[in-house]
Design a protein that fits this description.
The chain is α/β, with parallel strands linked by helices. It has 20 helices and 17 strands. The two termini are 46 Å apart. Bound molecules: the ligand Cc1ncc(COP(=O)(O)OP(=O)(O)O)c(N)n1, the ligand Cc1nc(C(=O)O)sc1CCOP(=O)(O)O and magnesium ion. The ligand Cc1nc(C(=O)O)sc1CCOP(=O)(O)O binds next to helix 18.
């Protein structure tokens, strides 16, 4: 894989070498390669010339902008970025001006803020992620959160694509003890992301916000093609740790703030339909081969080959149309003493006593998680990257599915395939969970997937489109459940 290229640009007399060094260290630590314009205040002509020199550097995937000290530099940079973005539309621009707070940036035009007004008019419409500190304090978390959202929405209306108010201090309760939380709030046209880190665990790196490490980390992760939600999580984890490396310790990762939690209630998050937490554990952490099929006939065929974990996934039918299939599926699951998960139809799964339910994260808005939990059904949750994994972890499902690893023909996916390197990262991070890898897993790929340590490999077409499905199941069982296959052979 080629190294991600990140440029950093700043123009300020006071910007010291330590800040530039912090950018370089961060980019290197997270696996990128950096090119820098970071010089004491230059004349306009010199600044433009420095930027022109950058164009001889390898093409940037992300540009991190730090302090830009004068209105003329802002205008020069805006022209430069506009032209560069036209040539390279995939480019992401991350801007962390450091000395400007969220409320100052969001304030209506005023005579004494010529620099801020120029930034708003010229630079923000080209910026993909704007990172600002929220300096307003206050003990009322809901009010602070609401003011933060309002300020962010004002800036979104100026044309910036996404805004992150970083490390807002909020007092919350954990295990009945008051604790100080650092909250990152990110909003763009599509989503609102809330991440919390206990302030007590913030490292000197986290607290040293004036160096702009957050934006360098974010730019470096985005340059490696991680989506913004995952990049925010990794950047915050990097700030929360002391190591100069890709974060791997879950204690350093932020928590995703959800409704129906102490902090969620405190911030006034709208309670989603019966979101519940802490589901019944599976009887094993290694669910083995996990065929996902769409008919009862297929369920029976895979059960006859010795499969012990499986899913009935029927799409786009009414509950009345699938009820008989679900009853028959549950009966088969019992007959073969297998773990039968029902996809989507959680109410029918409860009514007819399936082993478990599989849901996607959007289902949180519709499914009655409390009813699934109370009925004692296991819950499997789909995830597609760091952010969704951490969100699932807040819910503590019975297993976490990691998708889609490779391109799949079974389903249109809004996200990109994760690939093996990311799967390995997720498997290492979440090794205490039963993990299920899914998406485009052929027999040839299953060996590589299993080698990451995930305890289960879920497949559709590797079985349903195999020339010889019995042989395919035997091969996949040997890869995903080598010990049980050996045990059977020895019986
Ligand atoms: C094991 C497993 N992993 C992921 C999925 C996908 O579930 P979801 O995101 O809800 O999408 P649909 O399957 O409903 O299209 C799954 N079914 N099983
Ligand atoms: C149903 C499903 N969910 C996915 C996810 O990533 O959430 S991938 C997928 C389809 C898996 O089919 P195949 O093995 O044929 O690629
Ligand atoms: Mg679903």
């Amino acid at each position: 894989m080629t190294q991600a290229i990140i440029w950093t640009i700043a123009s300020l007399a006071a910007r010291d070498n330590a800040a530039t060094q912090a950018d370089i260290n961060t980019i290197n630590a997270l696996g990128g390669s950096g090119y820098h314009v970071s010089t004491p205040l230059l004349s306009d002509a010199d600044f433009a010339a420095e930027l022109a020199i950058l164009t001889a550097a390898p093409v940037a995937s992300a540009i991190k902008i730090g302090v830009i000290a004068t209105t003329s530099h802002v205008a020069i940079l805006a022209d430069f970025l506009q032209a560069y973005k036209q040539l390279h539309p995939e480019l992401s621009v991350i801007y962390e001006p450091l000395s400007i707070s969220l409320s100052d940036m969001a304030k209506a035009e005023s005579a004494d803020s010529v620099l801020i007004n120029t930034i708003k008019i010229r630079l923000l419409p080209i910026v993909d992620v704007l990172i600002l500190p929220q300096e307003q304090g206050g003990s009322d978390a809901a009010k602070l959160f609401s003011a933060t959202k309002q300020a962010i929405n004002t800036l979104l209306s100026v044309g910036v694509k996404g805004v992150c108010a970083k490390a807002i201090t909020v007092n919350s309760y954990h295990d009945d003890k008051q604790q100080s939380i650092a909250l990152d709030v990110y909003i763009d046209g599509q989503r609102e992301i809330l991440l919390s880190s206990p302030s007590a665990t913030l490292t000197p790196r986290s607290k040293d916000e004036h160096k702009g490490i957050f934006s360098s980390a974010l730019a470096t992760v985005i340059a490696q093609d991680y989506p913004i939600d995952d990049a925010l999580v990794v950047a915050r984890a990097y700030l929360n740790q002391t190591a100069d490396a890709w974060p791997t310790d879950r204690r350093d990762f932020p928590e995703v703030v959800l409704p129906n939690t102490v902090l969620g209630d405190q911030l006034g998050l709208a309670p989603q339909m019966q979101l519940a937490y802490d589901f019944a554990p599976c009887d094993t952490n290694r669910l083995g081969l996990y065929p996902v099929v769409d008919t009862v006939a297929w369920l029976e065929k895979v059960l006859q080959q010795g499969v012990k974990t499986l899913q009935l996934r029927i799409k786009d039918k009414t509950p009345a149309e699938v009820v008989d299939d679900i009853k028959a599926a549950v009966a088969l699951g019992r007959q073969y003493q297998a773990r039968l998960f029902i996809n989507d139809y959680w109410q029918l799964a409860i009514d007819h006593g399936a082993y478990g339910v599989h849901l996607g994260q959007e289902d949180m808005l519709f499914a009655d998680f409390e009813a699934i939990k109370t009925a004692g059904l296991k819950l499997g949750l789909s995830t597609h990257g760091y952010y969704e994994i951490l969100r699932a972890h807040q819910i503590k499902p019975s297993y976490i599915a990691l998708g889609h690893i490779y391109p799949t023909v079974t389903k249109d996916m809004p996200s990109k395939p994760q690939g093996l390197q990311r799967l390995q990262r997720y498997a290492d991070l979440m090794q205490d969970y039963p993990l299920v890898a899914i998406g485009g897993i052929s027999i040839a790929r299953a060996r590589l997937v299993a080698a990451t340590g995930v305890g289960s490999v879920a497949v559709v077409t590797a079985i349903t489109r195999a020339d010889d499905y019995k042989q395919a199941i035997a091969d996949l069982l040997a890869i995903a459940e080598p010990h049980s296959v050996l045990a059977c052979a020895n019986d």
